[in-house]
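look at this one:
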Amino acid sequence: MRCVRKSAFGLTLTFTAAMAAVVAAPSNVLAEDNTLTIYTYESFVAEWGPGPQVEKAFEAQCDCDLEFVSAADGVALLNRLRLEGGNGKADIVLGLDTNLTAEAAASGFFVEHGMAADETALPIAWDDAYFLPFDYGYFAVIYDSEAIAEPPVTMAAFLDADPSMKIAIQDPRTSTPGLGLMLWVRDVYGDDWEAALAKLNERVLTVTPGWSEAYGLFTNGEVPMVLSYTTSPAYHQLVEGTERYRAARFEEGHYMQIEVAGMTTKGAENPLAAKFLAFMMSTDFQDIIPQTNWMLPAAPTSEPLEAAFTNAVPEKALLMDPQTVAENRKAWVDAWLNVMSR
């Protein structure tokens, strides 16, 4: 989940010699204005999110000024880069996911990071010249057990359930969770997915621009279900001491999200950008992720994860190839809009 609100496997991230040199470089090797600007999504920089801790930890190492600039959600980050035409302030963009990486790489706004990530804590091999992962998770329907006694155990059962049991979801045009739900339905139902969307439409109370708005409606009791992550209940268990909010486990599988960061063409001229990407894969960064962004860490942590996280890994994971998503995203979003606006 994002920050109420995306077990390490004991693997070690390796770096190329060039990146090792960056990590070891003295703190006086800095950008001319000593500032690193990172575009990310709103919940990352919230006071309860990882942003404040990440900023403090990185600034202690770099003797620099880390500035976050936020957008509603992950898809909005790529939209912003396009509006700026590559002339924005971002050195790093943090918060895209693999559903957007092929499109983002083709945009020309990013440069290769030059790091080797042969071994991560991801359940799949990582091989992307432009983007590095910082966390991952699995989308899920989160439900209020005080409102729903018998949750659906398949996506088909969820779509066929009583339409009065509403859900808050996110817009795939602006939100990576919203995009993930769209791809989840597409992956499960294939060419019959528009009929499934029509059923989903009957269940939707509202579509929000980003994750934070939808989850806020859910925790405020305005809707008994919300699209979030299998890790979302971990927050309620570990922070609030309650198991009231739970993830429905679907037999068809859960769509996986891997969140990434990349260096922009502007960032390539700022030594702090490469230094941050190296820092991002370190335990100093990864230790912050689980209990602030409420996602699984993409690289090893210094301590084992709480059982609430390891128990959140579904038996079956779904994930589309980034290039397939890039080639079809516009047409699929158009189809989604057509059905969901009826």
